[in-house]
Amino acid sequence: MFKHEIGRKLKAARENANLKQSDVAKIIGSTFQKISSFETGRTRVDLETLIRLCEIYNVDADYILSTDKKNSNNLTLKPEESNLIVKFRQLPDSVKEDITDFINMKYNKLTISFLKNK
Q1: What is the tens place of the pLDDT at every residue in 48-101?
Q2: At what angle do helices 47-57 and 2-16 cross, to 10 degrees?
Q3: Residue 115 predicted with pLDDT over 70
């Protein structure tokens, strides 16, 4: 399970970096099939390759390796949700505040609408 979670995070980080598996393979001197096998969890990624991928994707290895279940609230994120979180974390705080305000406003509006129609 752990290697599948690492693979999911690597795929999300690669997609967030707007790179194809073949692009990454070329950069690290490998094949797109090998990148695919890391991302699907079929193959464990070695430490040297993991560090290189984190550099290419501009993500912290702690994020890729973290398995902190106590803060997860038992949520399983879809790849596009992980992508959004990675992008969100790279934004300036002022923009994060604007986005958070917008999401809260939309959520509250939908909740009120739902309650009225009940």
Answers
A1: 999 999 999 988 888 898 876 544 444 567 778 888 888 999 999 999 999 999
A2: 30
A3: yes
Write down all domains in the chain, each with its CATH number in brackets: 2-90 (1.10.260.40)
Do 94 and 21 form a contact (C-beta atoms < 8 A)?
no
Token couple for 34:
């090998």
- Residue 45 CB partners (closer than 8 Å, separation 6+): 3, 6, 7, 10, 38, 53
Helices (H), the chain: 2-16, 21-28, 32-40, 47-57, 61-65, 79-89, 93-116
Report yes or no: 103 and 35 within 8 Å, Cβ to Cβ.
Answer: no
Say if residues 13 and 64 touch (Cβ distance below 8 Å).
yes
Tell me the torsion sign for CA atoms 71, 14, 94, 112: negative
- Cα dihedral sign, 80-81-83-88: positive
67 near 26, Cβ under 8 Å?
A: no
